[in-house]
């Protein structure tokens, strides 16, 4: 099921926001970042937004995903840039406010197996019966 990620706002006072899920949660989670934009009150300065996560060796890495400036690029579409929680969004430069929006998808593992079973039964129902050859 898809859930709307309510978004977050990064400012000089709140430079980071961490999106995480319950460690005991058995589901698969995907967070997708759609839009990063400057909001009311932003100065004409470079605002760099980084995504901080972990690589395949479980080392923390920070990757800049947006460099916004009111006079030339106040908004950036990230085309549903998919991330694996936990992930931290950080205002690495500038004072914002920068708003981030996207969506959060939860895939329940039990649901996935039921869906597979349903798909198989639907395929079986759609097949035409095999008729004996005419002699």
TrEMBL record:
<dbReference type="GO" id="GO:0003723">
    <property type="term" value="F:RNA binding"/>
</dbReference>
<dbReference type="InterPro" id="IPR024057">
    <property type="entry name" value="Nucleoplasmin_core_dom"/>
</dbReference>
<dbReference type="GO" id="GO:0005730">
    <property type="term" value="C:nucleolus"/>
</dbReference>
<feature type="region of interest" description="Disordered">
    <location>
        <begin position="113"/>
        <end position="135"/>
    </location>
</feature>
<dbReference type="GO" id="GO:0006338">
    <property type="term" value="P:chromatin remodeling"/>
</dbReference>
<dbReference type="GO" id="GO:0005654">
    <property type="term" value="C:nucleoplasm"/>
</dbReference>
<feature type="domain" description="Nucleoplasmin core">
    <location>
        <begin position="7"/>
        <end position="105"/>
    </location>
</feature>
<keyword id="KW-0488">Methylation</keyword>
<comment type="function">
    <text>Plays a role in the regulation of diverse cellular processes such as ribosome biogenesis, chromatin remodeling or protein chaperoning. Modulates the histone chaperone function and the RNA-binding activity of nucleolar phosphoprotein B23/NPM. Efficiently mediates chromatin remodeling when included in a pentamer containing NPM3 and NPM.</text>
</comment>
<keyword id="KW-0007">Acetylation</keyword>
<dbReference type="GO" id="GO:0003682">
    <property type="term" value="F:chromatin binding"/>
</dbReference>
<keyword id="KW-0539">Nucleus</keyword>
<dbReference type="GO" id="GO:0005737">
    <property type="term" value="C:cytoplasm"/>
</dbReference>
<comment type="similarity">
    <text>Belongs to the nucleoplasmin family.</text>
</comment>
<dbReference type="Pfam" id="PF03066">
    <property type="entry name" value="Nucleoplasmin"/>
</dbReference>
<dbReference type="InterPro" id="IPR004301">
    <property type="entry name" value="Nucleoplasmin"/>
</dbReference>
<dbReference type="InterPro" id="IPR036824">
    <property type="entry name" value="Nucleoplasmin_core_dom_sf"/>
</dbReference>
<protein>
    <recommendedName>
        <fullName>Nucleoplasmin-3</fullName>
    </recommendedName>
</protein>
<feature type="compositionally biased region" description="Acidic residues">
    <location>
        <begin position="113"/>
        <end position="127"/>
    </location>
</feature>
<keyword id="KW-0597">Phosphoprotein</keyword>
<comment type="subunit">
    <text>Interacts with NPM (via N-terminus). Forms a pentamer with NPM at a ratio 4:1 (NPM3/NPM). Two pentamers form a decamer.</text>
</comment>
<keyword id="KW-0143">Chaperone</keyword>
<dbReference type="GO" id="GO:0042393">
    <property type="term" value="F:histone binding"/>
</dbReference>
